[in-house]
Design goal:
Layout lengths: L1 H27 L10 H14 L15 H8 L4 H26 L4 H16 L10 H18 L4 H14 L3 H14 L8 H31 L3 H18 L8 H19 L6 H19 L12 H13 L4 H18 L6 H12 L5 H8 L3 H14 L6 E4 L4 H6 L10 H6 L3 H12 L3 E4 L13 E7 L2 E6 L2
Parallel strand pairs: 1-2
Antiparallel strand pairs: 2-4, 3-4
Length: 483
């Protein structure tokens, strides 16, 4: 009977994952045909294109994230369809990996794994929290879920788990919080009740493979930029730049007051789990720690960007499973969930056009919308950007350069052009001390044939004496070099 039950569960699992994966594919299908409109993707596309054209990351082209996301964009030649398809495939495999993790954590509650995987797949597939965008978080979730699965199922492969978390970290540095959660899970689930120096040394040796797996790729990447002479730029972009970024949204009495409060709260939760570690099942410790650190991750920057919620989705789904399955600490778990849910609702805005997103796609497919109207659904400036792209392609050759004074880097991507300096958008040029100087030098050296000044950006403080205005497209002024 046990064998028959196991075979039945395997059959149900197969068909569940097949149907769920197909449903996920359908939810994400419209994302493959979106126009180039999302600003961050535009920057990533420029960096990917620049890397393929020989520019050294951070020194020759700049953005403030670790290198792996840009290498992913470079690998797919910054082609949005290919990148969105890769994100879709990553998503499907993430759903399958999450189901395996849920089965491992809720072994005796088969249906719970089905329900929370469905919840995870639905929210990850919808544009509600920007699952449709090929952002950092979309590529981070798979290695993180796989690392969690390895640690929960068998800690013999701690080195591999560390490597997977390092990959997530090299996509976006907030992966360090998942590293901390998994590291504490390893410590808490094996540390004896009575602590001794010898016991602690034993634990350190036991978690050493996980640490080696995590730090080795990071050290190798750092050495690469060191020997390329761009180590300072790499550290500044990947790590130090994020300090100022985080400080902006965490002021409470003092510059980092709110961040300190968050850290104290996180420390209190971790201390509670440590004190109760001998009374809590392994699944509780894993889910509590991962959710607590993921909440901290989500609110770390103090900014309400919707895609930040993606990093919370796996542990949130598991916490819901814990509420359903366990009576132990049920009130505490429920309170934990309710408080977190209220904080999320008060601090983040979900994508409000989710239903219309699919209506827009279907209407376009059936001929009910023009191309311009379809593109305009995503951003009212997108049709103008495509008109600019058409103009640029008609008035420049393969070797002609352009410069766009604006925040729509996707125009560079659509025209296979690169910015003259290392900054792709106006807000980067104005935000960094060397922005104006670097751009001026790039313009003087590259002599772009066209300079395009977008509306709604600060005035361009660069001489246009060698240029004359030749066109105006949607209030975007186009200047052509005259000598």
């Amino acid at each position: 009977m046990m064998k028959l039950a196991s075979m039945a569960e395997q059959s149900v699992s197969f068909w569940f994952l097949f149907i769920t994966s197909f449903f996920f594919f359908l939810l994400r299908l419209p994302s493959l045909f979106e126009p180039y409109w999302y600003g961050d993707e535009g920057i990533y596309q420029v960096l990917g294109h620049a890397i393929r054209n020989g520019r050294l990351l951070y020194e020759g082209i700049w953005d403030n994230k670790p290198p792996l996301l840009y290498l992913i964009y470079a690998f797919f030649n910054s082609d949005q369809f290919a990148l969105r398809l890769a994100s879709l495939i990553f998503g499907i495999v993430s759903v399958i990996a999450f189901y395996a993790l849920a089965r491992e954590l809720f072994k005796e509650r088969f249906k719970v794994a089905l329900w929370i995987t469905s919840f995870f797949a639905l929210l990850f597939g919808l544009p509600l929290i920007e699952g449709n965008i090929a952002n950092s978080e979309n590529f981070m979730l798979l290695p993180l879920i796989l690392a969690g699965l390895i640690l929960v199922k068998s800690q013999r492969y701690r080195l591999l788990a560390g490597l997977l978390v390092a990959l997530a970290f090299l996509i976006k540095i907030v992966g360090v919080f998942d590293f901390a959660a998994f590291f504490l899970f390893l410590l808490f689930t094996n540390t004896p009740s009575s602590l001794t120096l010898r016991g602690l040394k034993t634990e350190v040796k036991r978690v050493l493979p996980f640490l080696i797996g995590f730090f080795t790729p990071i050290i190798l990447v750092s050495l690469f930029f060191f020997f390329k002479g761009a180590f300072s730029d790499y550290i500044q972009a990947s790590f130090l730049q994020n300090v100022g970024y985080v400080g902006y949204g965490n002021r409470l009495i003092i510059p980092q007051g709110l961040l300190i409060l968050k850290l104290l709260t996180l420390g209190g939760v971790a201390l509670f789990i440590f004190i109760r570690r001998s009374q809590l099942p392994k699944s509780f410790i894993f889910i509590y720690l991962w959710f607590a650190f993921s909440m901290f991750n989500t609110f770390f920057a103090g900014r309400p960007y919707t895609h930040y919620l993606l990093v919370l989705l796996p542990s949130l789904s598991l916490l819901i499973g814990l509420i359903i399955t366990s009576n132990q600490y049920k009130k505490l778990t429920l309170a934990f969930f309710i408080v977190s849910f209220i904080l999320i609702l008060n601090n983040f805005r979900f994508y409000g056009k989710t239903i219309y997103y699919y209506q827009n796609f279907i209407s376009f497919l059936t001929g009910g919308k023009s191309v311009a109207a379809y593109r305009g659904f995503f951003d009212r400036n997108t049709p103008r950007d495509y008109r600019l792209v058409q103009f640029i392609k008609m008035n420049t050759g393969i070797n002609d350069n352009i410069f766009i004074w604006g925040n729509n880097a996707q125009v560079y991507a659509l025209t296979d052009k690169l910015p003259p300096g290392r900054y792709a958008v106006a807000y980067h040029i104005t935000a960094y001390k060397d922005g104006k100087e670097n751009t001026e030098k790039g313009i003087a050296k590259g002599k772009p044939k066209l300079i395009i000044i977008m509306p709604n950006v600060p005035p361009l403080k660069i001489s246009l004496i060698e240029y004359r205005e030749i066109s105006n497209i949607g209030n975007a002024k186009i200047y052509e070099r005259i000598f």
